Amino acid sequence: MNRPVVFIHGLWLHATSWQPWMELFAGAGYEPCAPGWPHEPPTVTEARENPDAVANFSIDDITEHYAAIIADLDQPPVIVGHSFGGLIAEKLLGQGVGAGAVAIDPAQIKGVLPLPLAQLRAGLPALGNPANLHRSVSLTRKEFRFGFGNAVSEEESDALYERWAIPSPARPLFQAATANFVMHAQAAVDTANDERGPLLLISGTADHTVPDVVTRSTFKQYRDSSAVTELKQFEGRGHSLTIDGGWREVAEEVLDWLKTKDLT
């Protein structure tokens, strides 16, 4: 029986942005799926036309949504998440859900302290207005360029924006930003779990939205766990590394890592 892989996207990208990864993983013998976030419309066009469909969902709402999907699978999957999807993947794995996980440019979890200026600017479209807490927020082409496409050409960034960008709930971003000041923060992850499956953290060294220093700090949060945790850095890559012209290099690295951990 082929092992399932559950792909989880982050803010401002549609679930269908995983399609090239799904085709590659299916060819490698996996059973991939990329479910959208709660109430996410099935297409990019519909998501843009109905931004309120995803408004006000929290980190726990999204985590429980994917946990329910995974519970219906025939065997524990590999969970691959990008950005906030990476945080969700970490959270699920810490709860003992899934056989292993890959968190690509994962949103910062509770306990991570670095807050670079580039990250603050990338989050400003949502965090800049407290009233956005219960709303969905869209990026402009210029904001997408800074947060996602800074390491590719402006032409490629604009093409990615037109193809994949959608409105997303701002609430998870507020929750992550305040996690270190909240006792029972939803951005908290059980990083001390010794019984969980292997975890690979991936960062792009040119990422503005989740700078490399943030991912390296996340890696350090797992130092008290005896479970396998590894870090892979991609030099000069930005937050668009899962969807831009270099996506295959990242995806093939993930496939190779899964083989070394017998997650096939």
Classify the beta-strand content into a percent band: 5-15%
Shape: globular
The main sheet orders its strands as 2-1-3-4-7-8
Largest sheet: 6 strands, parallel
- The mean pLDDT is 96
Essential attributes:
alpha/beta, 264 residues, Rossmann fold
What's the SSE blueprint?
Layout: E1 4-8, H1 19-27, E2 31-33, H2 44-49, H3 59-71, E3 78-82, H4 84-94, E4 100-104, H5 117-127, E5 136-137, H6 141-147, H7 154-164, E6 168-169, H8 171-177, E7 199-204, H9 212-220, E8 229-234, H10 247-260
Parallel strand pairs: 1-2, 1-3, 3-4, 4-7, 7-8
Antiparallel strand pairs: 5-6
Task: Give an overview in words.
- This protein has 264 residues and is an alpha/beta fold.
- The chain has one domain: Rossmann fold (3-Layer(aba) Sandwich).
- The protein is 37% helix and 13% strand.
- It is built from ten helices and eight strands.
- The strands form two sheets. Strands 2-1-3-4-7-8 form a six-stranded parallel beta sheet, with helices on both faces. It has a two-stranded antiparallel sheet with strand order 5-6.
- It is globular.
- The chain starts with a strand and ends with a helix.
What's a concise summary of this model?
This protein has 264 residues and is an alpha/beta fold. It has a single domain, classed as Rossmann fold. It contains ten helices and eight strands.
